[in-house]
Write a structure and sequence with these properties.
The protein is an alpha/beta fold. It has a single domain, classed as 3-Layer(aba) Sandwich (Rossmann fold). It contains five helices and five strands; from the N terminus they run βααβαβαββα. Strands 2-1-3-4-5 form a five-stranded parallel β-sheet, sandwiched between helices. Helix 2 packs parallel to helix 5. The structure holds 1,3,4-trihydroxy-5-OXO-cyclohexanecarboxylic acid.
């Protein structure tokens, strides 16, 4: 299992911990990333983190992942509900991906009920807060093992 796991977070997730904590929890993105780093160390896989508030940068990152990435974990944040470009990038690179949302997007406003990403990922995890990233990491390991 030489390949790495790439964890991509979209807009405003750099503010986790201070951003609407009643919805997104009190953990910062750095805290989530260090938990995943620890999991990766135990599983002996490489992990890389990328956060951007810009759609095109996320598309570029997905394209570049072709070289060395075994699985992408992605929380596209607001782009989940708007971005055909991120959807197409994921479909183009054919790297298996796991979609994560801290909140249960289906229990919130109608505009959050549709994900452009869901159809091109292996599966989606939503509603478990920061723990969703841990679940996604285990899913990524399982995908890469097969
Ligand atoms: C989110 C849900 C999205 O609807 C929202 O725009 C976000 C975060 C989540 O993790 O619950 O920014 O992806």
């Amino acid at each position: 299992m030489a390949k790495k796991v790439l964890v991509i977070n979209g807009p405003n997730l750099n503010l986790l911990g201070e951003r609407e904590p009643e919805i997104y929890g009190s953990k910062s993105l750095k805290e989530i990333e260090s938990e995943l780093t620890e999991l990766a160390r135990k599983a002996k896989v490489e992990v890389e983190f990328f956060q951007s508030n810009h759609e095109g940068e996320i598309v570029d990152k997905i394209q570049k992942a072709r070289a060395d990435t075994g699985c992408i974990i992605i929380n596209p944040a607001a782009f989940t509900h708007t971005s055909v470009a991120i959807r197409d990038a994921l479909a183009s690179v054919k790297i298996p991906a796991v979609e994560v949302h801290l909140s249960n997007i289906y229990g919130r406003e109608d505009f959050r009920h549709h994900s452009y990403i869901a159809a091109v990922v292996r599966g989606q995890i939503a509603g478990f807060g920061a723990y969703g990233y841990i679940l996604a990491f285990h899913a990524a390991l399982e995908i890469m093992r097969k």
